[in-house]
Amino acid sequence: MSATARYGDPAAALGVVNDVLTLQLSHRSVRRFLPHAVTDDELAALVAAAQSAPTSSNLQPWSVVAVRDPRRKARLAALAGGQGFIEQAPLFLIWVADLGRAQRLADRAGAQVTAAEYLETTVIGFVDTALAAQNAVVAAASLGLGSVFVGAIRNHPEEVATELGLPPHTVATFGLAIGRPDPAEHAGIKPRLPQEAVLHRERYDAAADEHIAAYDERLAAYNARFGLAGNWSGRVLQRLSGPESMAGRHRLRQTLERLGLPSR
Amino acid sequence: MSATARYGDPAAALGVVNDVLTLQLSHRSVRRFLPHAVTDDELAALVAAAQSAPTSSNLQPWSVVAVRDPRRKARLAALAGGQGFIEQAPLFLIWVADLGRAQRLADRAGAQVTAAEYLETTVIGFVDTALAAQNAVVAAASLGLGSVFVGAIRNHPEEVATELGLPPHTVATFGLAIGRPDPAEHAGIKPRLPQEAVLHRERYDAAADEHIAAYDERLAAYNARFGLAGNWSGRVLQRLSGPESMAGRHRLRQTLERLGLPSR
Questions:
Q1: Out of A138, A243, A252, closest to residue B20 by CB
Q2: Which residues from A are below 8 Å from B99, CB to CB?
Q3: How far, in Å, CA of A235 to CA of B174, rounded?
Q4: A33 falls within a domain
Q5: Is A50 inside any structural domain?
Q6: From start to end of chain B, where are the E strands?
Q7: Neighbour-count burial of B229, counting CB atoms closer than 10 A to its CB (0-12 exposed, 13-18 middle, 19+ buried)
Q8: What is the CATH number of the domain that holds B111?
Q9: Fewest CB atoms less than 10 Å from the CB: which of A19, A77, A253, B53?
Q10: Does A98 fall in a domain?
């Protein structure tokens, strides 16, 4: 049941299933929220789940800023493409790749953390932040909370850093708007690529691309349900067409350098 | 109960709890596996969970290569710091940030995907791969499977690409060794930083660093249980001291360029 919606394919089925898998497979982005607050107990549970995710060498190179102040949410929403659901969500978490904590440790110890200057370490920051945040997404779902990631927080990383008082050697990686889903939202479970297109055995096989055609049809049908045109291939080509389709984020490399993450 | 182990703090407690949170909070890396195979049904469930994770603009910019061949696992283990558990694990998943699929779409359509040349898009590749992989980690745990990430797959990305036949515009981001945990493994739930050190309200507060001292004591006590010396601060400073502590990964930026991910 959950696999058929996940793949938009009546023939899709899984040979094993349990409550956790069912929860994961039924994930969708939630962009309309009821006004109910996310409690401090719920927030603590989300962060504990996030901290339980694996982290490279136990570096724990991330922080999270919990924003509930309506005015701050409005300012962040304006910086992140003006998406109204950010203001509507009772809780907006900004996930921060944080090499600043290690840098401050080094400063206090009179030591050097030169490794933090390399792209590899920036990547660890982004990856470990993502592992943590995804645990929070699943934890939220288990508590009946919906969520949606906001990559547009990277449209204006320096302004976001000022708004949140982020110290050097940190960068806001993405936001996560959280709240109780409004059942009136007209949204569904967006089908993904056929598993055969992304799962390879022993070696990568580019012939797996042959499964994209069927997916294009499924996604076009799904989009049409919501009054949207276009299939997957067309949208990918449009989204990646060039810097003009990146809302300013093509400058990320220079911005990271100014934020103290030279990523060399 | 699960919070006390997670934080190594008898006073740690959560106000909400459920089966999913308990599963997440009890996460530990597993590095000793029983010989039982991970079945194809289990693999399909892990990948379906991974595909259910959020992905920026539905780009789905990742692939995963499932390796079971003992000789290939041995060669990958040798490329990834010689870690024996890779050979022992019945299943080794290599998660691939994959802009190659979009590039091939563009080639077939006679289109350009110039956005794929920017660091922002490389970051999306790594982040979305991480979101997906973390869902697989939680799904694995729900099926009684243990796992451990292998960042050392980035020690030699070009050799890994050759071994796996990875096409241009892709990079192996990390490995994930999976199998049934050997109950004889001497391992525990590694305590994390106090939540007060990573969770900020409204604005980032560097004074949260004051909670590191208590954590250093907890982690030193935890390490001592396993015959290891050192606290958290000392290990972070050592791990990030400089390029010589990075196992070759300080060259990631140049390597990505050669793999067709110029990340400019």
A1: A138
A2: 240
A3: 28
A4: yes
A5: yes
A6: 62-67, 91-98, 146-150, 170-179, 199-201
A7: exposed
A8: 3.40.109.10
A9: A19
A10: yes
* B194 part of a folded domain: no
Q: Say how far residue A93 (Cα) sits from the centre of its chain.
A: 11
pLDDT in tens, A211-248: 999 999 999 999 999 999 999 999 999 999 999 999 99
Q: Is B160 on the interface with A (CB under 8 A)?
A: no
Q: Give the nearest partner residue to A24 out of B57, B139, B205, using CB atoms.
A: B139
- Structural domain count, chain B: 1
pLDDT in tens, B20-53: 999 999 999 999 999 999 999 999 999 999 999 9
Domain range for residue A164?
29-187
Q: Is A167 in CB contact (< 8 Å) with chain B?
A: yes
B13 lies within 8 A of chain A by CB:
no
B44 at the A interface (CB within 8 A)?
yes
Decide if B42 touches A, using CB distance below 8 A.
Answer: yes
Distance in Å, alpha carbon of B20 to nearest chain A alpha carbon: 6
- Cβ contact (<8 Å) for B240 and A102? yes
ipTM above 0.95, yes or no: yes
**Contact with chain A for residue B71, Cβ under 8 A:** no
Residues of A in contact with B241 (CB under 8 A): 111-115
User: Tell me, what's the pLDDT at A1?
Assistant: 59
Of A137, A155, A223, A74, nearest to B135 by C-alpha is A137
B147-162: per-residue pLDDT in tens? 999 999 999 999 999 9
Nearest chain B Cα distance for residue A180, angstroms: 16
Partners of A236 on chain B (C-beta within 8 Å) are: 59, 102, 105, 113
